[in-house]
């Protein structure tokens, strides 16, 4: 599903990733771990092409995406559901609209939108807040809106950047359980986190980064 | 991409910035109104000046020595010219009778002259569409070479000035049209640009979520179109009201205004023109979308 071959990424004079190689199979759920600043977010950005790698190749579904034309980028992004570290919610829209946008962008029939949005809000326990605006919700709740938006279109690949960064341990465990359920239905999931508690005892593969270097893998 | 959704986004954004949008709509209306009035003025002046040449003719005064057959061949020759519409021969006696009729009660002025002092003459009417200083000059130059013509007379100055007035009016109209259209496109451009900048973060998020260019663009195009069409409708209503409160009433007192041309098509063209200008402005404002 995903394959990195000697991928490097430099920001100005700073190297965020150095010759990183790994692959993730279809249907896998993998944790990208490492301390803050180790390059986890950058690695995910190279997959949804918010950044382009400076060296090496990035494959998604067998597609070399790093040299992809601009016009194909939206096509790639619609196959992926992303939970951004900074949420990227639309603050002038209700919770419902924030989740629905993922379906509208994909041209889903308006008659289907309502049921699917409510389904995914139910999964993150925000069904009752669908008419609220993001500003009126806590950081943890906003994070769950972002998760609902990432999963609502049932993408084949989900990338989550610190998806439990703003929630208490109980909610955090709930979110990981949710991802495991979605993963069990076939979606490939990549979760970037600096929190070891998160992948402990999950039995899922972990890839560890440090200062932009790939320093090993293990099982959570 | 769903069009109803784009409409909903556009309408909510229009209402959200309702003062900016209303102001640019009004500015558009004023711009379109000025454009329409300019076009109407130019068109009506053009129409009037087009009617004037019907009265225009070239007069040839002939030498008395010319025989009737020679006159006929001369007339036949003039008829061959492609710019000529009609040719009339006016015998000297008829000209004299006409002169007498014009003078009517002051006929005695002519008494002292004894016999008819007027020459035979030929009046030439040119085809309206070919009437211009050049064609007249060409024809008269040709006629001057002919024997038997003592004098050629035509409103040279009149024709030339009429021609330059028409040309000038058309140029002024065109310049106005271009300047006003550019101004109106700029109004829509800057309005949409403001909306676009305000939504900068939102658009970034749309792009990250995989929205196509069309999905991002369409609401802004709709906003430009609504501002343009709205301005067009306001100017249309204003123009019709102006027409009925002023021109229509005044034409009862000044019949000259009756001959003014006031086409209905223009009213309908105003909202359409606003629509096009609005969309054009929006397209420029959005520019290229990059991922
Ligand atoms: N846009 C950027 N410009 C410059 N440096 C950046 C940028 N984004 C990230 N970095 C740097 O790259 C390194 C890796 O960042 P990041 O991928 O966000 O790490 P993580 O997600 O593991 O905390 C950090 O040192 C960070 O400061
Ligand atoms: Mg990060």
Strand composition percent of chain B: 5-15%
Instruction: Give the beta-strand count of chain A.
Output: 10
Task: Using the coordinates above, name the CATH class of chain A.
Answer: Alpha Beta
CATH superfamily of chain A: P-loop containing nucleotide triphosphate hydrolases
Measured between the Cα atoms of the first and last residue of chain A, the distance is 21 Å
What radius of gyration of chain B results from the CA coordinates? 31 Å
Largest sheet of chain A: 6 strands, mixed
- Low-confidence runs of chain B: none
Distinct ligands: adenosine-5'-diphosphate, magnesium ion
H-E order of chain A: EEEHEEHEHHHEHEHEE
Task: Give the oligomer, counting copies of the same chain as homo and different chains as hetero.
Answer: heterodimer
How many domains would you count in the coordinates of chain B?
2
Helix content of chain B: over 70%
Q: How confident is the prediction overall: mean pLDDT of chain A?
A: 93
**Can you give the helix content of chain A as a percent range?**
25-40%
N-end to C-end Cα span of chain B: 18 Å
Structural class of the secondary structure composition of chain B? alpha+beta
Portion of residues in beta strands of chain A equals 25-35%
